Amino acid sequence: MRSVHVTRGRLLRGLTALVVGTAGVAVAAGPAAAEDDPGWVSGWLGDVTVGGPGAPGRTVSLTLTSTGATQPRVTIDLAGLAGVATATFPDFCVTQGTSVTCPMPPTAIDESGTLTGTLPVVFRAAPGAVDGATGTLDYTALGDQTEAYAQQATVTVRSGPDLLDTVDEYLSGVEVGDSLAVPVNVVNAGDQPAVDLRLTLRFPVGLVPPSFRNCRYGTDQSLATIVVCTVRGTFAPGQRHELRGGLATSVGPATLGSKRITQVVEPLASAGALPNGVKLRSRDADQALRLRPVGAPLGVIPVEADSASGQTYLRAVRGAFDIVAQGAAVTGAVGETVRVTVGLRNTGPGVPDGSISGESVGAFRFTPPAGVTVLATPSGCWLSGDEEEPETVPATWYCDGPGSVFPAGTTHVVGFDLRIDSLSGGPGEVQPYQRYPRVDDDPSNDVAPVTVS
Q1: Share of the chain above pLDDT 70, in %
Q2: Residue 27: phi, psi to the nearest 5?
């Protein structure tokens, strides 16, 4: 082995040259690396169910998303659908045998450099396809030089009626006292008629539906009105039906915040279980709820009709309400244990309702007075802060609300046992944990003192 001696100066000069050279390579590689980024393309098509031969076509969206890719597109292999179903694509797609290639749709939306487009694909059962037959559709989203990912959707033929609800409305500017005409629209996407159907609706607290003699009514745990109607008639394949004039629904004084009126349609013969935990009763009424046919039967079901469920969404109804903090004032001697009962009261008339949003309703936070020790945390409450050092981080207890709604005229309070360590401290307080769905109409009473003397 030959030994080579390198002086310290030569070593330092060599290291310096290495660092400079490496930096130069990094700088030179940076733009090139950015230019070589091929971007990405992804696609999505869920599994599809179509009616048997003779049913209207079913439109389904194939979604194509791309960022930074050149010529984003999707290729589809239809060979797996042979004898089961056919698929029809937009005119700008190119078909060669059982292979179809579609570019990013011209209607794609660009959001911050990401393109998202939808390809409407119409599926139909193949002639002679039997009930329960299944096939596969393979598709691959790609761009020039991007990595391609093959995916697969299953297409199933299902004979029988297939009722879809086509209501999807969003309403703004609704006010307490308004009367709404809530639409009910149904179409049969199956290959056989439905004889009679069940319509189930849910009206959140504050919304008052009309009465029909062929409907039954109940109230769930969130004070929502549940309506279950048996609607007689024959609903032919492709035929649309509607409730003329809609459901005349009153927006009552308890209505507060955003609301979602839901509806579900089912063939009566195969309808599922009735809503759980709801006692349904009939009401006296002069009329029955009937659905009337509209227009000619559809040859193709539109992409918007994709579920047995529909909705009418009301945005931010500004109902009046007032949440009042409930404080306490107790007396005792040092060393004694006293109980304080604190919480909130909703004086109404609006009812905060978190059954859809998941927001906390009627929850509060309680900061004890200085000089006391909370002996136990009540059920439904938890500690935040440091009880050991209240001067720097006040110990605060958070308590859950009474449920998904906070009814008008009700009070939600919790008792805390406090050991008095000193009578020289300042007062505590109680206030709402979250002001949902907005600050109420009298914020001056949202905080109340809690004192021990």
Answers
A1: 90
A2: -65, -40
Give the model's pLDDT for residue 8. 36
User: What's the CA angle centered on 181, arms 286 and 243, to 5 degrees?
Assistant: 60
Q: Strand pairing of 149-157 and 48-50?
A: parallel
Question: What are the tens digits of pLDDT across the range 63-103?
Answer: 999 999 999 999 999 999 999 999 999 999 999 999 999 99
Closest CA to 247 of 219, 275, 285, 277: 285
pLDDT of residue 18: 36
Residue 205: CB partners within 8 Å, gap ≥ 6?
Answer: 222, 223, 224, 254, 255, 351, 353, 405, 407
DSSP-derived pairing of the beta strands 309-317 and 168-171? parallel
* Prediction pTM value: 0.85
Structure tokens belonging to residue 217: 């009514």
Which three-class secondary structure state does DSSP give residue 444? helix
DSSP string, 245-297: T-EEEEE-TT--EEEEEEEEEEEGGG--PPPTT---EE---S-----EEESSP
CA–CA gap between residue 177 and residue 201 (Å, rounded): 21
Q: What angle do CA 57, 117, 89 make, to 5 degrees?
A: 35
Q: Which of 243, 231, 245, 437 minimizes the C-alpha distance to 346?
A: 437
pLDDT of 223-242, one tens digit each? 999 999 999 999 999 999 99
Could you check whether the bond before residue 293 is cis, i.e. omega within 30 degrees of 0?
A: no
Whether 224 and 204 have beta carbons less than 8 Å apart is answered as yes
- Across residues 128-150, what is the average pLDDT? 96
